[in-house]
């Protein structure tokens, strides 16, 4: 790697980013424009009907966010508008289709000729997404990116954003190891992606013949995804389909340079462009915010389970570092790695018991105010070390009351119908959320990050470790959660 400072950082390069309106991609676009405005072009894939609609969606959903306030203040609103107009090109398309369904042939030809770097951040991250949707985006979408890359004349690298939890419910030290096509986690089943596609096709035909509602079809396809994931050893549709996407990329990449970034639980920004920016309710936050609102007084974990979290700006920095290291390499370079775990459990572990304390202390000092203007007082949440103990808690404290309410409702000609349905819905939702999040909240593994550490050392040697910091050991978890992440998450809800 022959660079000594930030000046040549991606200068003159044309970068194509999929999933451009997503959480991670927004931070990536902001970072590139802020530290290297002399990038040649940013082609951004946006799900839209045409170029005009893509541009509008990009402006509305990306540029108008608070995320760009630092850059806007740094260079001025007019200069930022000019920079975006000259360098950023939203492309109307959908990752689920061949060539992303791009209809603007002139733009597509330009992309084939000019693209140097492809970053695939498009994904559906819902753990129990419909199996057909998750297959189209996370599996076939990844293959579509690869096939598109093979038609690009000057492409130097593909960076695919996956998840560290393709490992499933792993224990011990989990290596930065790639998948073999057809590999399963339980080693007892045979995984054939074409068979999985046929299962989806047959199920959709079966459901269509039953004349079901859209909601019923959706629930059935969600259940199918979980069933197929469990069959092959994965806990949910998300991790299963992300693993299949990795398999296809690794198997069919041929001579293309491929890097797979596997982050763990992505949390709010640690530092850039400012601390605490987040969008949407993420994995752990679902429980934390429900606790703060007084809707839930428990959390999962035991002293030996890890909550492996990593701030989103560190993930973005790792993506850029991997690109620089790999496309900057020469014939003597030793950067041959394919997989990078972007994680914290190996170097700066965060425990479930820590999260429990952070929740309690934060909402004790900063209580939620309900719609009636009343302060919601929280108690130290109950900690469950297994799903069995959680189900026992539900059956002891909630099911009896639900049964009494059900009986009272029947005897009073459904006078308590709304109360009964609301409580049942909350119980069902708590159980479903707990099942979905269990692999992440009751996790007993730690992620090896030897490849990632070598990448960090390369950035340090090149004096880029400050601008591209992704070292979790610098995080003080109590400060980060109490002063950065939780305030950011609460602010987003409002």
UniProtKB/TrEMBL annotation:
<feature type="domain" description="Fatty acyl-CoA reductase C-terminal">
    <location>
        <begin position="401"/>
        <end position="494"/>
    </location>
</feature>
<comment type="function">
    <text>Catalyzes the reduction of fatty acyl-CoA to fatty alcohols.</text>
</comment>
<dbReference type="GO" id="GO:0010345">
    <property type="term" value="P:suberin biosynthetic process"/>
</dbReference>
<feature type="domain" description="Thioester reductase (TE)">
    <location>
        <begin position="17"/>
        <end position="319"/>
    </location>
</feature>
<dbReference type="InterPro" id="IPR026055">
    <property type="entry name" value="FAR"/>
</dbReference>
<dbReference type="GO" id="GO:0035336">
    <property type="term" value="P:long-chain fatty-acyl-CoA metabolic process"/>
</dbReference>
<comment type="similarity">
    <text>Belongs to the fatty acyl-CoA reductase family.</text>
</comment>
<keyword id="KW-0444">Lipid biosynthesis</keyword>
<keyword id="KW-0521">NADP</keyword>
<dbReference type="InterPro" id="IPR013120">
    <property type="entry name" value="FAR_NAD-bd"/>
</dbReference>
<dbReference type="GO" id="GO:0080019">
    <property type="term" value="F:alcohol-forming very long-chain fatty acyl-CoA reductase activity"/>
</dbReference>
<dbReference type="GO" id="GO:0102965">
    <property type="term" value="F:alcohol-forming long-chain fatty acyl-CoA reductase activity"/>
</dbReference>
<dbReference type="Pfam" id="PF03015">
    <property type="entry name" value="Sterile"/>
</dbReference>
<protein>
    <recommendedName>
        <fullName>Fatty acyl-CoA reductase</fullName>
        <ecNumber>1.2.1.84</ecNumber>
    </recommendedName>
</protein>
<dbReference type="InterPro" id="IPR036291">
    <property type="entry name" value="NAD(P)-bd_dom_sf"/>
</dbReference>
<keyword id="KW-0443">Lipid metabolism</keyword>
<keyword id="KW-0560">Oxidoreductase</keyword>
<dbReference type="InterPro" id="IPR033640">
    <property type="entry name" value="FAR_C"/>
</dbReference>
<dbReference type="Pfam" id="PF07993">
    <property type="entry name" value="NAD_binding_4"/>
</dbReference>
């Amino acid at each position: 790697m022959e660079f000594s400072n930030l000046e040549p950082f991606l200068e003159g390069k044309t970068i194509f980013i999929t999933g451009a309106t997503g959480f991670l991609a927004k931070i990536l676009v902001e970072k590139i424009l802020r530290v290297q405005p002399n990038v040649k072009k940013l082609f951004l894939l946006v799900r839209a009907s045409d170029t005009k609609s893509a541009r509008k969606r990009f402006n509305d959903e990306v540029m108008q966010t608070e995320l760009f306030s630092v850059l806007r203040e740094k260079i001025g609103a007019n200069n930022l508008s000019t920079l975006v107009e000259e360098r950023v090109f939203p492309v109307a398309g959908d990752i689920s289709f061949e060539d992303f369904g791009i209809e603007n042939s002139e733009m597509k030809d330009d992309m084939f000729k000019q693209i140097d770097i492809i970053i695939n951040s498009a994904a559906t991250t819902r753990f129990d997404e419909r199996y057909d949707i998750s297959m189209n985006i996370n599996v076939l979408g990844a293959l579509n990116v690869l096939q598109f890359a093979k038609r690009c004349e000057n492409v130097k690298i593909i960076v695919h954003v996956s998840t560290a939890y393709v490992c499933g419910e792993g224990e011990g030290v989990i290596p930065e190891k790639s998948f073999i096509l057809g590999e399963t986690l339980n080693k007892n089943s045979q995984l054939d992606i074409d068979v999985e596609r046929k299962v989806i096709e047959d199920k959709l035909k079966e459901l269509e013949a039953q004349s079901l509602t859209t909601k019923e079809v959706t629930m059935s396809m969600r259940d199918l995804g979980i069933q197929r994931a469990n069959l092959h050893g994965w806990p949910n549709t998300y991790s299963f389909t992300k693993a299949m996407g990795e398999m296809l990329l690794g198997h069919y990449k041929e001579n293309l340079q491929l890097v797979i970034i596997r982050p763990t639980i992505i949390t709010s920004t640690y530092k850039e462009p400012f601390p605490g920016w987040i969008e949407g309710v993420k994995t752990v936050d679902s429980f934390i915010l429900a606790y703060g609102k007084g809707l839930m007084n428990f959390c999962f974990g035991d002293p030996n389970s890890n909550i492996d979290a990593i701030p989103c700006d560190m993930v973005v920095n790792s993506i850029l570092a991997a690109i620089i290291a790999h496309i900057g390499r020469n014939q003597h370079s030793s950067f041959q790695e394919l997989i990078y775990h972007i994680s914290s459990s190996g170097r700066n572990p965060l425990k479930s018991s820590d999260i429990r304390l952070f929740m309690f202390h934060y909402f004790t000092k900063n209580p939620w105010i309900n719609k009636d203007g009343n302060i919601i007082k929280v108690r130290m949440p109950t900690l469950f070390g297994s799903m069995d103990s959680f189900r026992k808690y539900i059956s002891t404290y909630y099911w009896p009351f639900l049964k009494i309410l059900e009986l009272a409702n029947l005897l009073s000609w459904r006078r308590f119908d709304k109360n009964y349905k609301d409580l049942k819905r909350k119980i069902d939702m708590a159980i479903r959320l707990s099942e979905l999040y269990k692999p992440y909240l009751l996790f007993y593994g730690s992620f090896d990050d030897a490849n990632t550490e070598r990448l960090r050392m390369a950035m340090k040697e090149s004096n880029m470790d400050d601008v591209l910091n992704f070292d979790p050991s610098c995080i003080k978890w109590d400060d980060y959660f109490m002063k950065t992440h939780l305030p950011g998450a609460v602010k987003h809800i409002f």
